[in-house]
Automatic annotation (TrEMBL):
<dbReference type="InterPro" id="IPR045024">
    <property type="entry name" value="NDH-2"/>
</dbReference>
<dbReference type="Pfam" id="PF07992">
    <property type="entry name" value="Pyr_redox_2"/>
</dbReference>
<keyword id="KW-0285">Flavoprotein</keyword>
<keyword id="KW-0809">Transit peptide</keyword>
<comment type="similarity">
    <text>Belongs to the NADH dehydrogenase family.</text>
</comment>
<dbReference type="Pfam" id="PF22366">
    <property type="entry name" value="NDH2_C"/>
</dbReference>
<dbReference type="InterPro" id="IPR036188">
    <property type="entry name" value="FAD/NAD-bd_sf"/>
</dbReference>
<feature type="region of interest" description="Disordered">
    <location>
        <begin position="429"/>
        <end position="492"/>
    </location>
</feature>
<keyword id="KW-0274">FAD</keyword>
<dbReference type="GO" id="GO:0016491">
    <property type="term" value="F:oxidoreductase activity"/>
</dbReference>
<dbReference type="InterPro" id="IPR023753">
    <property type="entry name" value="FAD/NAD-binding_dom"/>
</dbReference>
<feature type="domain" description="External alternative NADH-ubiquinone oxidoreductase-like C-terminal">
    <location>
        <begin position="354"/>
        <end position="409"/>
    </location>
</feature>
<keyword id="KW-0560">Oxidoreductase</keyword>
<feature type="domain" description="FAD/NAD(P)-binding">
    <location>
        <begin position="12"/>
        <end position="330"/>
    </location>
</feature>
<keyword id="KW-0520">NAD</keyword>
<dbReference type="InterPro" id="IPR054585">
    <property type="entry name" value="NDH2-like_C"/>
</dbReference>
<protein>
    <recommendedName>
        <fullName>NADH:ubiquinone reductase (non-electrogenic)</fullName>
        <ecNumber>1.6.5.9</ecNumber>
    </recommendedName>
</protein>
């Protein structure tokens, strides 16, 4: 397969991933003397901090995403390919993708992070994630499907099992999704399901550590817990989750909760790609980089954002895996790449911590800034403003703003839709007959790579057609597709 990337006399910078880091880097290279090739398996940028609102019916998914091609329309040194990188061939200065090999002069890995289950297979199989748009939609469908099933149950225990929600992880995502579900329970669900007694629905937030929002101030941590408990969320601290078995979450010292919905927000790990040397990859799958984000052992490969591990005296465990680190590293790398091309000394990265924040619910948020901290209604307004202005595109900001205003006035999240039913293999009970999916559900397992042609067992085989006459122009020479036009200069 031809990747059809035109040859250029400019050095080629291949960027893998269009998260916060990749997006910022490509933007800042707009006027740089380089050819920028962006590779991503999604054709959109996803604003992850608001995924939980998609999962709980507050926002539509198209309000927090932006098409990649639209964002970089008019950037003449930019090329995008809808592709998944499978291997880095550093000896040939190429990346192997599902659409073919692509050469580079400089490679920037900005693949972000992935959910970390810490090797717990029972949790990995049973838990729902909030990491991507599809996973957020799956969780939304699964929550409301369980309420529909609860209407069909005869015993209180069965109804509680379907209604209860357990959130694991006391970081910002865990706190925010717990608060959002608590607001659904208080304001929305009793109106939609008057036949159910929501006094028996329990929401649990379980954290293995001693505090919520680890990394924020003690005041913010304590206030977040107070807010959640006022919203009838049961908070358990110092309670590591051990397993999920027979519809029960086991945690702490012989504690268990029966719940069908288990949401995992307990941690993330890096996303190192195959092909890198062993000494370049840390135990948590983050990539070891120096102080200007060059990958250890390579002269023309860089990593930024969550996937990069920059160990210094000030950051012995690396920088926090947050958007601001990725954005600041991307800005600096965009300045350093022309310096490296011109054989000048690159500038070292110094993280400027601008603060952190988390929302718990309506009028409830906590904000830690470098010089002062505050909580409550004003903190909630600050959280709203920062996240609104961080969205990509004016249309997304406008739609999100009016959706939030409507939700605030009416106390109603109107997106309680099961558009794509989520099917998972049911827990087997003694005497149960096998249950088959109805055919229109989203499967639990991961999708296959886009390069594979899949025929479902329920589909009829396609009829064979006579081969079409090839009227395409002759194939372009390889040097016009993926050959490196510019030899990388030695590092200063």
């Amino acid at each position: 397969m031809n990747v059809n990337i035109p040859a250029s006399n400019l050095p080629r910078v291949v960027v893998i991933g269009c998260g916060f880091g990749g997006l910022e880097l490509v933007k800042k290279l707009r006027h740089a003397p380089v050819q920028v090739v962006l590779l991503d398996r999604n054709n959109y940028h996803n604003f992850q901090p608001l995924l939980y609102q998609v999962a709980t019916g507050s926002l539509e998914p198209d309000t927090i995403v932006a098409p990649i091609r639209k964002m970089f329309k008019g950037q003449h040194n930019f090329i995008y390919r809808y592709a998944e990188v499978q291997y880095i061939n550093a000896e040939r200065n190429e990346v192997e993708t599902n659409i073919g090999p692509i050469g580079y002069d400089f490679l920037v890995i900005a693949t972000g992070s992935q959910t970390n289950f810490f090797g717990n297979k029972t949790i990995e199989k049973a838990a729902m994630q909030i990491k991507t748009i599809p996973s957020a939609l799956n969780l939304r469908s699964y929550i409301f499907q369980n309420f529909e099933k609860a209407l069909l149950m005869n015993t209180t225990y069965e109804k509680e099992e379907l209604m209860n929600v357990v959130v694991v992880g006391g970081g910002p995502t865990g706190v925010e999704v717990s608060g959002a579900i608590a607001e659904l329970k208080a304001n929305v669900l009793p109106k939609d399901y008057p036949e159910l007694d929501f006094r028996s629905m329990k929401i649990y937030l379980i954290e293995a550590g001693p505090v919520l929002l680890n990394g924020m101030s003690a005041e913010s941590s304590a206030k977040a817990r107070q807010y959640l408990e006022e919203m009838d969320v049961h908070v358990w601290l110092n309670a590591p989750v051990e397993k999920y078995e027979d519809g029960k979450v086991y945690f702490g010292k012989d504690q268990s909760i029966h719940a069908e919905t288990l949401i995992w927000a307990a941690g993330v790990s890096g996303t190192a790609l195959p092909g890198l040397q062993e000494n370049a990859v840390a135990k948590n799958q983050r990539i070891n980089v120096n102080q200007f984000n060059k990958v250890e052992g390579y002269e023309n490969i860089f990593a930024i954002g969550d996937c990069a591990l920059m160990v210094t005296e000030d950051t012995p465990r690396g920088h926090p895996m947050v958007a601001q680190v990725a954005i600041q590293q991307a800005k600096l790398l965009a300045k350093n790449l022309p310096r490296i091309i011109n054989r000048e000394t690159p500038e070292n990265f110094v993280y400027n911590n601008k603060g952190s924040m988390a929302t718990v619910g309506r009028n409830k948020a906590v904000v830690d800034l470098p010089k002062f901290k505050f909580q409550g209604f004003f903190a909630w307004l600050v959280w709203l403003f920062v996240h609104l202005m961080s969205l990509a595109g004016h249309r997304n900001r406008i739609v999100t703003f009016f959706t939030w205003v409507w939700n605030y006035i009416t106390y109603d999240q109107s997106l309680r839709l099961i558009i794509r039913p989520y099917w998972r293999e049911p827990r087997k009970k003694k005497g149960d007959a096998p249950i088959e999916p109805q055919g229109n559900e989203t499967p639990q397992e991961k999708p296959l790579p886009i390069s594979e042609n899949v025929v479902l067992a329920t589909e009829k085989p396609a009829e064979l057609l006579p081969p079409a006459k090839d009227t395409s122009p002759p194939e372009a020479p390889k040097e016009q597709q993926n050959q490196r036009p510019f030899p990388p200069p030695p590092m200063a």
